[in-house]
Design goal:
The protein has 3 domains: 2-83, Alpha-Beta Plaits, CATH 3.30.70; 90-172, Homing endonucleases (Endonuclease I-creI, Roll), CATH 3.10.28.10; 199-278, no CATH class. α8 packs across α10. The chain has 10 helices and 10 strands. The protein has helices at 21-35, 62-70, 87-90, 94-108, 127-138, 161-170, 174-223, 232-241, 249-254, 262-278, and strands at 2-6, 12-18, 39-45, 52-58, 74-76, 82-84, 109-111, 120-124, 146-150, 153-158. It is rod-shaped. It has a 4-stranded antiparallel sheet with strand order 1-2-4-3, with helices on one face.
Length: 285
Amino acid sequence: EGRFIKERNGYYSLNINTQDNTEARWFIFAMNRIYSLHSDIHMKKNKLNDNTIFCVKTEATYAASVVYSDLGLMEVDEQNNGIFSDIAELTESTCCRYSYYEGAFLSSGTIKDPEKGYYLEIASKNSYEIERLYNMLIKESLVNAKRSKRRKTQYVYFNNSEDISTFLNMIGAHNALYDYENKRIVKSLRNDTNRMLNCDEYNSDKSVETKIRQINAIKYIQKNKKFDVLNDKLKEAAMLRLNEDLTEYNEIAEHMSVKVSKSTVQKRLAKIEQIARQLGYESKE
């Protein structure tokens, strides 16, 4: 994250905090090379996760104010009087708006690993900044932004995978988008496969239960010497059902003396169960 702070001498200093050592050193180099600004750096520990944070602060001179002006955030005269720029004016064009979103995300945004869920947020303790960002995003027809607040921090966030992908594309994070989409596709395929396996397993279990129930009904009829009650079509279906090699209805249908559909086989076996119940058979379901 970065911010400009007006110091006692009337000039601005530029301050950034980052967990990336390379990023901090690049910033120091860029400020010195482009604006001849010297910077101080110190480290502190993040109280939440014990990570090292590199804190960089430029000297407070007119040159730092020029950085502010070059970023388009404020116009500065020779007396260091600042006139803040109108963000709405700066972000009228699509490319400038997308650059603004990119800066907001790079400074205070996080994205969740799609393996663990779909979530991208941009955080700020400045309610005006969040309000402005949110209002800009809801005018975009491509994404559906949402707002939330936790303690003193406010957030603009997306919790839909399509919105996250679109936003990454908008800010030009194409490598991140490619990686994100790959993980999302793998997760989707894995979930689809698991659903299919669970469905197949459930159907398989139900088929086994049905087969056992039907066989028990047939054996009950045979045990009570009532097999002759069945007509020839039902007798044939019953004998084929007792064949351990024939599990599915379509397999039984193929072995019938007269070609029938598997639904016909199912109806005949259901009729046999009905007759068994009329004779006193109680299935254990």
